[in-house]
Amino acid sequence: MMWQELVVGIIVLTAFIYVVYRFISKVTGKRAQGTTCSCDCSGRCSHNKNC
Amino acid sequence: MKQKITVALAGNPNAGKTTIFNALTGARQHVGNWPGVTVEKKEGTVTHSGRKIHVVDLPGTYSLTAYSLEEIIARNFIVDSAPDLVVNVVDAANLERNLYLSVQLLEMGCKLVIALNMIDVARGRGIGIDEAYLSSLLGVPVILTNGKKGIGLDSLLETIVFEVENNQSSDNFRRFTYGAEVEDELEKIQNLLRHVNYSLEGPAFRWHAVKLLEGDSEIVKKIDSGDDRKTIREQVEKSRSHLKNIFGDNPEIVLADARYGLISGAIKQTVQIERTDRVNLSESIDQFLTNRLLGPIILFAVLYAVYFFTFRGSESLVQYSESFFAWLGANVSETLPEGLLRSLVVNGVIAGVGGVLGFTPLIAFMFFAIAILEDTGYMARIAFMLDRVLRGFGLHGASMLALMVSGGIAGGCAVPGIMATRTMKEPKERLVTILVAPLMNCGAKLPVYALLIGAFFSGDRVSIMFLLTLISWAMALLAARVIRSTVLSGPSAPFVLELPPYRVPTLQGLLIHTWERTWMYVKKAGTVILAVSVLFWALMTFPDLPPEIQQSFQKKLETLNSEFIKDVGASSVIQTPQALENFEKFTKERKSDNAKDLAKALAAFSKSGYKSDNDSNQRYSLMENPEINTDVAGKYLVLRAKRLEVENKEQEERLRNSFAGRVGSFLELVFLPIGFDWRTNVALLGGFAAKEVVVSTLGTAYSLGSVNPEKSWNLSEKLRNEPGWNPLMAFTLIIFVMLYAPCFVTLVVIRRETGQWRWTIFAMVYTTLLAYAMAFLVKTTGSFLGIGLV
Q: Is residue B685 part of a domain?
């Protein structure tokens, strides 16, 4: 069952790298620079990907 | 000190602009023509406090579009000549129409003073204006003037000099937005303009973007003469057609509506009309819907209807989609060979992501209902009514926007909610709004509520959801009150709440809104939640039990098997472990689960080819006796139950031994008083990544804990049948999830918006303490009163 362990290992590692990447990009805020999140008084929100 | 000040006089025709101009400059006037055109240009000077003020009388206009020569002249002068200040002469008797120009001037980012002229005429018509409040709402000085009698002119000049000398940059243009969709498109255009580096400054970028979106011929011409014009033109066209699809109207109409919404809100808050000659449709609807007595009743009824529609409407679809993931899990289990990969796919991915995706129909229904409230304009009225309540808790009118966006009606998101506080200028109120916004019921908490409500309160889904909305508001307001009267005390400042006219929403617009938001939810499940589910699966799977413990469980199972064989061996063919294994394989193929079927299976087994070499034909013939078969089947069922007990114990040990299990078990020390076991603790830790993960982690934990993952599962059913779970426990968890630490993205945004880690930590700590205290209160009160224990 070595191949299963290998596949699982790759998937878990990829998930880990992705989560860490998301965290770092949120903390450093690179994606959000120069953008504003637009919400108006009516409570409508864009769920802008930059927010 | 500036010796010469240039002031432009702008205003509607017949607002008394020229009268003011004449009164200010007297004989010191020069009349000519604007360059290249025959429109009269009047200029004059006046000296005040030692400063020479050069006054330019702009042509009278109703707006700053490019429809007439006068409008183009007026706005070109403001944009190109950049006067030190613009005095907007406003006819107090026709405030709504006149303020339209004011809003556009604010939008251009110019320094503005409003001369509220003809106040005597307004008063004569029974119109009372609170000019101080209007001034604070618009963020610009408002001076009462009467050009004919020369009243207020000194004050006006004083204000002009003061404003110019206090050379603070004006950012009033940020005080209102056009709504999410328009703002998104404006942002795209602005970014392109910045990219091609037009010689523009802050507000001018936005103004140019607005004008391009409106299809303003002059600005389009200006942009067309620059480089990269094709890219900009393409983006503008794309944005215009996108907005047209959503709103079913041209962008210029949508933008004008938004401006009138702002004006309407400002007027509602500052103008009192004793005699009304004409009331438009929106106003007459408002008299009913925002009535002090009827308004709140209608509001509650509407909220109840929203939840009714959401839960009842999506009920069967949610069941279908949950069954689909259960079916998928069962089928994948059968397809993949036993091992780590199967466990990951079935227990990690399908149980985790499927748990979240199962609620997609519910989320879509909720977003559709919210889109109706928004697109009709009723959402703005909800904000308007709740604004009154908010002020009593030391919050700002603008806090209302942030709280509504964060999930005032379940389904928002705290991240854009916190960002919406950027329009607030008062640091204390902004901070307190940021701190309480995460207490609202964001869309990510919805699946957790839906899961627990579905499992334990299926008869009262709507009422419970309604109650949760009230609790989250009560908690947010309470927290705000406490924070405002302790760490952040100070008075509230005024703010305009926009009241756009009522509109009949277009189906296309509603569907686009619903789709965009639902897609975000699905996308999140497919990215972050998928990744976190995989990680949590790994944390709940590794490390495996030490071999000696595994062996001890194996030994227990073998002992149970041997005891069974010993017991039934004399009267059946199941005399060896091999025969038992064969029989189990046989019953599994036949899907025999109860005593009757098993008895039949035994009879069939004796005739089948499942004999081992040691089995004799004589014994197989014994199995044709129905009485013996029933007896053996009964004993076999007892064996299965005993084995299941051991296997469950082993799974539990396995989970407890995992990384996540160890952390969760450690946290049991803290969470025991509120009744959370280690699995719930792990799920709550997962919720820190994103609140939906609470559902996916519970799914993984209870799926991994199940010894029969091939069997169709449904998390709601599992929780319902799990010992230790009851309605009280579910409600305690709901309250905890509602109030505890915001997800990490929200915390990052809090850090970015407050600029300080200490407020981020404060937000995390106080919300968790509040959650713990409230959960404890619910748990102990419920236990004491004996509510929800069964």
A: no
Report the residue of B535, B536, B685 to disrupt the A interface, i.e. the one with the largest count of A CBs within 10 Å: B535
* Window from A40-49, B465-474, B750-759 with minimum mean pLDDT: A40-49
Mean pLDDT confidence for B503-507: 81
Q: Do B180 and A18 touch (CB under 8 A)?
A: no
Q: Are residues B502 and B559 in the same domain?
A: no
B708 band by pLDDT with thresholds 50, 70 and 90:
low
Antiparallel, parallel or unpaired: β B85-91 and B112-117: parallel
Is it the case that residue B306 has pLDDT exceeding 80?
A: yes
CA distances from B441 to B362, B405, B406, B414, B745 (A): 15, 10, 7, 9, 16
Taking the alpha carbons at both ends of chain B, their separation in whole angstroms is 78
The helix (run of H) or strand (run of E) holding residue B721 is helix B715-721
Q: Answer yes or no: are the C-beta atoms of B395 and B433 closer than 8 Å.
A: yes
Query: ipTM of this model?
Result: 0.70
Q: Are residues A29 and B379, on separate chains, in Cβ contact within 8 Å?
A: no
Secondary structure letter of residue B29 according to DSSP: E
Identify the CATH number of the domain in which residue B90 sits. Answer: 3.40.50.300
Q: Do A39 and B520 touch (CB under 8 A)?
A: no
Number of domains in chain B: 4
Q: Report the number of secondary-structure helices (H) and strands (E) in chain A.
A: 1, 0
Q: In terms of domains, do B303 and B260 share one?
A: no
Does the residue B256 lie in any domain?
Answer: yes
- Dihedral sign (CA B381, B383, B389, B395): negative
